[in-house]
Design goal:
The protein is mainly alpha-helical. It is 50% helix and 3% strand. The protein contains 21 helices and six strands. Strands 1-4 form a two-stranded parallel ribbon. Helix 14 packs across helix 16.
Amino acid sequence: MTSEEFIQNPWKDGSGHPQYKESFLNMRPAPEYASGEVLLASLYRNVGFSEKISEGKVPALGRDLAKRLERGRRPGGEQGTGIGLDALKNLMYGALSSPKQPNQTTRRFLQLCPLIPDAAIYSLSARLSANSWNPGELVKRLIGFGESDSSRVDEKWRGLFHHLSVGANDDIWAKFLTKEFTSWRTDDLRSEWNLPESAERSPAIERWHNGSATIPAQQFVRDLEHTLFLKERLTRRQWISLIESILRLGAASHVLWLCRAGSAFNDAITCVLNGGTPASEAELRRRITVGDPFWRYGQVAGRTIKDNVQGFVMSRLAINLLLWHCDAEVVGGVNALSGQSLASIPAMAIFLTQLAAIRGQLRMDEFHQHLHRAIDDNPRVVAGKEGIGSNIGEFLRHVLGQRQTSEAGMDSYDQGYYLRKRGNYKTAPWVVSLGPVSVLTLVHCCTHLAKGPRTVEDFCRHLANYGIEIRAQDVPQSDLGQTLRNLGLVLDSPDAEGGMVLVSPFKSPITGE
């Protein structure tokens, strides 16, 4: 492909340059709509189910189950738990039901809380069609980015399977539901839910760990492990709510970090093309690591989402165009950049140095003409109003935002959010704010391995690792401080250097365990 061919349709699948595709900057899978429960249900499907229960097959499996429920016939004459058919329907469409979005309330389809693995067989794919994206694959890549030791990635992936499974130590409600759902499986699904063979971390992620920076995925991997081990102390529903909350924050902060990393590298390239000095490896690491926050606690979130989305779209366009443009340039008989990887920070620094060496021999007027033409031909994509940018924005808003629903009595269903509406849910802006379940989860993760007291200042540093900024002195007057007090998670201590002392929500007051 030439740069001329690339700008004809720079957003289609397959238009990306091989060097870009093989780098960590290539956002795969490309995010689209997903709520927290969709993320969790897809993780079930990725960690323990086969292709028979792939994302695109879930809607059809859900419709099939709904029809069998109407007929009242279990496959193979299974008995299940002995619950009556009417009671079972009330369970499926009542106690286990997950609220639908306001634009879905007139549509009749199964949407089940992903309390157990079997619930993920029949509901909560990202789309109600066969072409859904795979949010669970994003979590899998997130673990790969966050764990530097490749031998431990498989260990963590299998650990997820064991924790998400319903075993002898699970509460009676989870075991009851598992037995009932199993009786409704068709013959071809009888043997589903098995230990995964391998997480198979991609080569792009392996290369990223060669000189990597501090990123949100590293904090996520630690926090996920801390949360998984709470299973035996909580009911299944309580525990699943905590798992869902940490998945939401980890996935969203990872996507925001990728957006920022792409923008930072594109800025470094622009500097070189304009005659500047190539950024060193240390400087690139400083720009790409989690330093400045993505957003401040209490701020309106829309501008941050829009800016990061636009930055990613522009970097994706400009970097790929430059690579295709350089493929057509021959400097000294060869393309000096064709063998330069973008898979790690050290490799990127070498790329910038090589680019500086040949920039005087590149046809930059042609490159800028093509870039401006691509921008002018695709204004809505570049603005993040359609295409990949719009999809990323939708993902961030839905995965972090409190679930909106018009179903009666379900307004407070979602308590694991990180964005909430300030006022009327139809017109009010989204602001950065942690729900009670999110606060419980993160306070536990912050205090879990602490040798001594942890303060609100430590908690603020913990949030900063995910790109959320709030100063310790601002916490008491914020709604975060109010939530901490309401949940009994802080003690006011004038002797504490960081202000209020955190109280671990799940430690025994006697044993401290």
